[in-house]
Every structure is written in structure tokens, then in C-alpha cells.
Amino acid sequence: MTNKMDNNKTLLRCSGLTKKFGGLTAVDNVSFELKKDEILGLIGPNGSGKTTLVNMISGNIKPTGGDIVFKGRQLRGLKPYRIGRLGIARTYQIVKPFPGMTVLENVAVGAMNGKSEKNRSVKDAFTAAEEIIEFTGLIKYKNYMADSLSIASRKRLEMAKVVAMDPDIIFFDEVMAGLNHNEIDKATEMIQKIREKGISILIIEHVMRAIRLISDRIFVLHHGSKISQGPPDDVLNDKKVISAYLGKRYKQLVK
Amino acid sequence: MRKNIFFITLIIVSIAAPLFISNNFILRFATDILIFAILASAWNIIGGFTGYASFGNVVFFGIGAYSTSVLMSVSGLGFVVSFLLSGILAAFFAFIIGLPVLRLKGHYFAIATLGVAEAVKALVQNLDITEGNSGIYLPPPDLSVDGIYNFFFYISLVVLILLLLTTRLILKKKLGYNMIAIREDEDSANSMGVNTTMIKSISFSLSGFFTGLAGSIYAYQQGFIKPEPVFNVLITIKMIVMAVFGGLGSLFGPLIGSITIEVISELLSSYFLMAHTLFLGIIIVLTILFAPKGLIDVYGNKRSGLSYFLNNIKEHKV
Fold first, then answer.
1. What is the mean pLDDT of residues A119-138?
2. Helices (H), chain B
3. Residues on chain A touching B174 (C-beta within 8 angstroms)
4. I want to staple B67 with a disulfide (CB 3.0 to 4.6 A). Which of A96, B86, B96, B133 is the partner?
């Protein structure tokens, strides 16, 4: 599916992104790139500005400064739905399924909206939704109400909803938080399968085991600034990252 | 399928009813029910499906009523033209006022819409063209007495059927799914690519359009209108109560709610002249307590009898 020529092509470039809430600088002059078919990990302590960064790119909050360029197009100032239609999808840290709709309907809403050139009829959207539910392993819950699902299934439903939008990029905001080991392994596998569909991924996660395994590169935020970036093993051995986020005991734990 | 059969049967019975009912009082009563069914079902579009509880929908009713009155008595237009223009004007007003007001959520939206309705009432009370508080007369329909009763019954029935068909059509389309997505989680819908502002405005305008048509019918039926009765906040309350009583966010819920409430209220007032609102209040409270999803859910639910009601109490305990 994926074209070799496209590899290393930058899909999303953020430069000098800054967000100030009054006197507090939540994100301070952060620049990064997301390449095609890449899984980019974003880690950092609580309150380091990870979600704020994603909220700026997805249009939920307005940046104080900086540029967001997606496929050569400036995204700054666009509303969330416009960004969703251009091909950037996101999940929310606190899952936001449509509780009163069935699992199938939830995913179908994603399939009938999302990337605009792929806008489908209602019938086609339901067909596509059915395939994605199969793909994400939710098929037995197809007709369940979304609010009757377990937390692991809800997180999986969130993933199904954004995949249904047929995006170029997905931001996963802590989709593994609150899952047990077995469920984390399944989620990791799912994210790799999503990448194989030709979707680039930016993933915010605290589960080091998973993020180390799936990320091609990782970058680290601390007090709103980028303190490290590179291949997982380099970043996770970086002294600054260890003292700011991982803690000295981390190395012993992983070994 | 069961619902379709129910719907078709109801239409046939309604169309045929006036042929067998020679009693004009009953026909007039049925027309009142139909008008309230239009109001409650129109409210259901914005309040039930889109999740924005408007407490000012009476403003569209009033605008519909006054548009028809002014267009007919001042501009001298015929009823059909005035009727359609009234709906369009109410829809247009809903769209314009929706742009700022639909940015608010929950209680704030409710209060803002309430304010809009009161403000428009004050405006109508003070404008020359609406003849202020003294009210405005409409030319009567050029029909026999029986013809008039039949005319208002059928026009209300046609509007109600059109409204229900439109709603049903929307629910099967992308618009309907997006409306419900907004009700369930607006932020999530927005980031999935749903133009929430547009969808909410369309929904509010549709609600306004049909409410305006009902106002137009009401004005022509009354022959004389004043600002206070047609902009009365109690009309808004009544449409909300009927929609909730019958079943919020269901196609036929508001219709069932308006039939039930009107019939119960009529029966009570013929037996208890003074205390009928007290009994009506008790019935409404008990219904909301035992069947919070409305009467339609009592039929549609898998549980039956006492266990259904007890389960509701358990689930919705505060």
C-alpha cells in the first residue's frame, strides 16, 4: 500500500508553537515534524503541555504564536471541523464516544464526516463502519450502546471512530491509560495495524513499554519546552529526560 | 415497522375523522391537539435531537402569527402566501438569532432563548405596524361554518404530517446523525469534521419554520391576536412538557405526548373545574418519575409492567 517514494516526506510541520494562558506559558516555542508513515511518540510529565500542543494543532484552542503547516497548508486559525476534514483526526484523553448511539452508529458518524473528499453516503458510511469495527475487534459489540462498554472497549471505539474518518494523521491522546497489560498489548498491535493502513501517528502516552516499542522517534516536553528528540533508545537514555520525567529508577526497572 | 403501521393507521384515521365527526367542538379540540403536536414535534428537532433545550420557541409561534396578521390585514395578501411567508420568516429569524445564541450551551442557551422571546414580545407590543397591545384583526376565511372547522383541521394535519415526514427523512440522512452526534458530544463531533454551527442553525431554523406555520394557522383561526397570548412563555413550557412526556428525541413521542396531555387536561377540567391543573401537575410529575424517557418508551421497552417502572426509579435516582 505505502509508496516508498513517499517515505521521509514531511506531512505536518509545526514551528515555534507557543501557547500562553495568562502568565503561564503552557507550550513554549515548540517545533517538530511528523513524517509520512511515522509513529512519533510524545512524552513528558503531567502538565508539560502535551495535550495543549495537540489541542492547538486540532484547532480546539488558538496558538499564541507559531505555525502549523499540513501538506503545505497553514492550519492556524482553522476551526476543528475544517482540520478534521483536511485529514487530521484526534482522540481525547477523556474518551468522548457518543453515549446514546450504538457502536456502529458512532463509527458511522466518523465515516460520513472526516476527510472531505471521501464524504460518503449514509449507506456507504455504514458499510465502511462495519469493516472498521471488524478491524478493531469490536464486531461483537456492534449494536451495543457506547455507554455500556468497558473502558478498554471505549478506548478502542475512540480509535475506530477516528480511523473511520480516513485521515492522514491521527493524534492518540493517552489511549492506553487505565488499560491492563493484556489490553495495552492489544492496543499497541492495533496502532501498528493503523500505521500499516498508511496513516501517520502522533501518540501521547505514559506507558513507556508500549511507546518505546512502537515509536520511530520520540520527543519530550518539559514545562512546555522540547528537551529531547530522537530514536526511542537515545531519548530514554537522555540524562535530561531521566531527571525530568522518567526518574533514576526507570533504568533499573526496564533492564 | 410497528411504528410505520401505527403512523399510517393514525394518518388514515385522522383524515377520515371529520367525515364522521359532525360535532364541531370535537373537531376544534382535535385541531388544538394537532397544533400542539406541531409545536412539540418542532421543539423536538432542536431540543430532542440536537440537544439544545430552547425555552424561547414561542417566539417563532408569535412571529408566525404576527407575520400572517400583518401580511393579510395590512398588505392584503391571501392566506396561503402569508402562511408560507410566515414559516419562512420564522425560520430566517431562527437562523439569524441562532448564530449568537447557539454558541451558548445548557442553561445559558435556555435563558438566552427565553430572553429573545420576551424581547420580541416587547418589540411587537410597541411597534406601530403590529398595532401594539391593542391587537390586530385578520380577515375571516370565506367559508361556511363547517368548512372553517374542516379547513383548520386539515391544514394542521397536513403541516404535522409534513413535519413528521421531514424529521423522519432527516434522521435517515447525514444531517440527522450529525444532529444526534452534537447532542451526544459536541466537541467530539466538531473534531470529527461536523460543522456544528451550521448543523445547529439548520436544526433551529427547521424548528422555527414549523413553529411559525403553527402560529400562522393559530392567528387565522382566532381572527384576532394580541402580543401577550401568542408570545406567552407558557406555550413554550407546554411544548416542552408534551415533548418530554411523550418521549424526547423520538419521532412520535411529542405527538403522543400532546394527544395524551390535551385529552387528560380536557377530561380533568370537565370534572374538576377548579383543581384540574393540580391533578394534571401530579400526573406529569408521576409520569416523569416512573417513565422519564416518556410514554413511547413504555411501549418500546423490553421490560414490562411494574418492573419497567421500578427499574426507571432505580436508574434515575439522584
1. 90
2. 2-20, 24-43, 58-73, 79-101, 106-126, 145-172, 174-184, 186-191, 196-222, 227-230, 233-246, 253-271, 276-290, 295-300, 305-315
3. 112-113, 122, 125
4. B86
CA distance A15 to B292: 52
- Structural contact between residues A223 and A46, judged by C-beta atoms closer than 8 angstroms: no
Find the closest chain B residue to A125 by CA distance.
B174
Count interface pairs A-B at CB distance under 8 A: 79
Hey, of A113, A122, A173, which one would you mutate to test binding to chain B, going by the most B CBs within 10 A of its CB? Answer: A113
Of A168, A163, A155, A135, give the one whose Cα is nearest residue A207: A155
pLDDT confidence of B20, banded at 50, 70, 90?
A: confident
User: What are the start-end ranges of the H helices in B21-57?
Assistant: 24-43
**Residue B316 pLDDT:** 66
Which pLDDT score, from 0 to 100, does residue A127 have?
92
Chain segment B21-34, per-residue pLDDT in tens:
778 888 899 999 99
> What CA–CA distance (Å, rounded) separates B120 from B122?
5
Q: pTM of the entire structure?
A: 0.90
Smallest Cα–Cα separation from B159: which of B44, B54, B42?
B42
Give percent of chain A above pLDDT 70: 93
